[in-house]
Amino acid sequence: MTRTALVFILLLAGISGPTLAQSGGSATLVVRDHRFEPAELTVPAGQKIELQVTNADSTPAEFESGELRREKLLPPGKTVTIYVGPLRPGQYEFFDDFHPSTRGHLVAR
Ligand SMILES: [Cu+2]
Fold first, then answer.
1. Cβ contact 62:100 at 8 Å
2. Exposed, middle or buried: residue 19 (CB in 10 Å: 0-12, 13-18, 19+)?
3. How far is the CA of 41 from the centre of ligand 1 (A)?
């Protein structure tokens, strides 16, 4: 291994460490035009997730999920924090209880 390659690997390790730590444990979700953005949200399994959910619509929404056992009002224009997990690997459906066709899911892996 050349010295340059070693430096590159150390650099990569240094970059990926903090980036993983940052994305692990938190995620953001937006309700806009009665759709979840993104409709599929990947989060790390096995740890508590801080979900920041913003309702960008001018009408109230309600984040609800039987699988995640959460129900939280999302006033128009507000951001609400919802804690979920630690989750086993898998898919977890959620929807807007005021607009049940507004659906999405978390993928824990
Ligand atoms: Cu409800």
1. no
2. exposed
3. 21
The model carries a pTM of: 0.76
The rounded distance, in Å, linking the Cα atoms of 58 and 4 is 54
pLDDT in tens, 81-93: 999 999 999 999 9
Q: Which residues have their alpha-adjacent CB atom under 5 A from ion ligand 1?
A: 62, 64, 71, 97
User: pLDDT per residue over 6-59, tens digit each?
Assistant: 555 555 554 444 334 334 589 999 999 999 999 999 999 999 999 999 999 999
| Residue 83, CB-side half-sphere exposure with 13 Å CA sphere | 3
Find tokens 């508590």 and name the residue: 48
